[in-house]
Amino acid sequence: MTLAADVRSVLVEQIEKLDGVAAVNIHTYTIPPTDKTDDKPVFLITEIANDESGYGNNNPTNLAQKPQIQIYYPKDYSLSMDSLENNLKRLMRIAGYYCFSDTGHFMSPDDQQTMVTMKFNHSKGEI
């Protein structure tokens, strides 16, 4: 399983804690053109890094992983973005992923959609 797939499974398993989010709108690597929801946020999970680290006997002992989650909000999103993002960070933290960067909200230049990008650190041992 890839890092992005691992992160997706963390979110899907706890989907009820992410108010207003549907599992069908959580994607890895690319958002299919068929995902045209107007009422739910769309998640895109990608990988920034998956580097070997921690060495013993000249062999790596774990991976320093960095997944990234982008959330694209519908134009007329009525729920609390802050609440959703805080719950997301809490779920990720419980699963061992720690947020090290949160861009804050910005508008995508092409369709003026509100979005946010969060980056996480994770250490996967025993490789």
3D structure, described in words:
The protein has about 130 residues and is an alpha+beta fold. Helix content is about 20%, strand content about 40%. It is built from two helices and six strands, in the order αβββαβββ. It has helices at about 5-15, 80-95; strands spanning about 25-30, 40-55, 60-70, 100, 105, 115-125. Strands 1, 2, 3, 4, 5 and 6 form a six-stranded mixed sheet that branches. Strand 5 (about 105) and strand 6 (about 115-125) form a beta hairpin. The longest helix has 14 residues, at about 80-95. The two termini are about 15 Å apart. The model has no long low-confidence stretch (mean pLDDT about 95).
Characteristics of this structure?
alpha+beta; single chain; six-stranded mixed sheet
- Binned, the helix content reads 10-25%
- What is the assembly state of the chains in this entry? single chain
Structural class: alpha+beta
Low-confidence stretches: none
Cα separation of the termini: 13 Å
Question: How many DSSP H or I helices?
Answer: 2
Strand content: 35-45%
Overall average residue pLDDT: 93
Largest sheet: 6 strands, mixed
* Rg value: 16 Å
Q: Looking at the structure, what is the overall shape? A: elongated
| Topology as a string of helices (H) and strands (E) | HEEEHEEE
Q: List how many beta strands DSSP finds.
A: 6
Topology:
Elements: H1 3-13, E1 26-28, E2 42-56, E3 59-72, H2 81-94, E4 98-102, E5 106-107, E6 114-125
Parallel strand pairs: 1-2
Antiparallel strand pairs: 2-3, 3-6, 4-6, 5-6
